[in-house]
């Protein structure tokens, strides 16, 4: 399978600029996810790769093959050899499972015997080989989604393009479907571009993720890099839950900065390498981010003597969410979300520690 490369791809609809000189490279055989809020340009990027949109400028290549180059080259969608699975599945209701999957092969005028053999092969791949004579109205949503995937794989594609394929499934089925699809993608090794606004799908399935906002790339990295080392506050806030705390930083002489939060009597100690261009020039208004699960809850007897950034917070609410408890508390004049595995019966107050290595520091908004 080829690498996919987009260079300076831009697209506007009227006066609305949807993509701003987008650069990305998807490696051979990886599952690469486009993640971001609605309207950020994810689907426009996917449709530009598929040939369903023509960018205003830029180049798109599949390996050494140029499929788009400004106004000079624009290969038709049917000649790009992309397998596409739409959000709505788009299976034909008047055709059986077999005939839906066979349709791309029929268009390519493959022999009947070859078509039948390939349909059997891909239906076994997606675990629908016993349902080939059923019609879409006789299938569940998850089964229809697998029919759409089988059709996309019927003629072996150079690229598999998936546009939020699980959005119409319920939560339990969606979880099973993404595990199944990830295992299938790894087994067949097809280079895949996956579009979603669901952070859990992106984190659980992807080799790498590109976080987008308003047609621009915010960060590209592995799921671990995106979650643990966000490039900016937007990425930190969009991927997972995060506390964003504003304050004024004063540089220290020991590789740390002291950050004063409004309404909090003591400063928080933050490593200067925890963001903000490696800590260069930390002086003035900043924003801190800390994940709720990284906050340590101490017993009423108090924190250990060597604990840093220990504060007492007033509990505003508590919620039980099955596998954890979620507390919302007041930290100075800010809201602090704390996640813990066990209930904490501390009355109206919690003693918490914000470990310095759990904090990242960014410039003002």
Question: Which descriptors would you attach to this protein?
Answer:
alpha+beta; 5-stranded antiparallel beta sheet; 365 residues; 2 domains; 6-stranded mixed beta sheet; Rossmann fold; OB fold (Dihydrolipoamide Acetyltransferase, E2P)
Characterize the structure shown:
With 365 residues, the chain is α+β, with helices and mostly antiparallel strands. The protein has two domains: 4-236, P-loop containing nucleotide triphosphate hydrolases (Rossmann fold), CATH 3.40.50.300; 242-362, OB fold (Dihydrolipoamide Acetyltransferase, E2P) (Beta Barrel). Helices cover 23% and strands 35% of the residues. The strands form four sheets. The chain has a six-stranded mixed β-sheet with strand order 7-8-9-3-10-11, with helices on both faces. A five-stranded antiparallel β-sheet has the order 2-1-4-5-6, with helices on one face. The longest helix has 18 residues, at 171-188.
Topology overview:
Layout: E1 4-13, E2 16-26, E3 31-35, H1 42-50, E4 57-62, E5 65-69, E6 73-74, E7 82-85, H2 97-107, H3 112-125, H4 141-154, E8 159-163, H5 171-188, E9 191-196, H6 199-205, E10 208-213, E11 216-221, H7 223-228, H8 233-238, E12 243-251, E13 256-261, E14 268-271, E15 284-290, E16 296-298, E17 310-320, E18 325-331, E19 334-340, E20 349-353, E21 359-362
Parallel strand pairs: 3-9, 3-10, 7-8, 8-9
Antiparallel strand pairs: 1-2, 1-4, 4-5, 5-6, 10-11, 12-13, 12-15, 13-14, 15-21, 16-20, 17-18, 17-20, 18-19
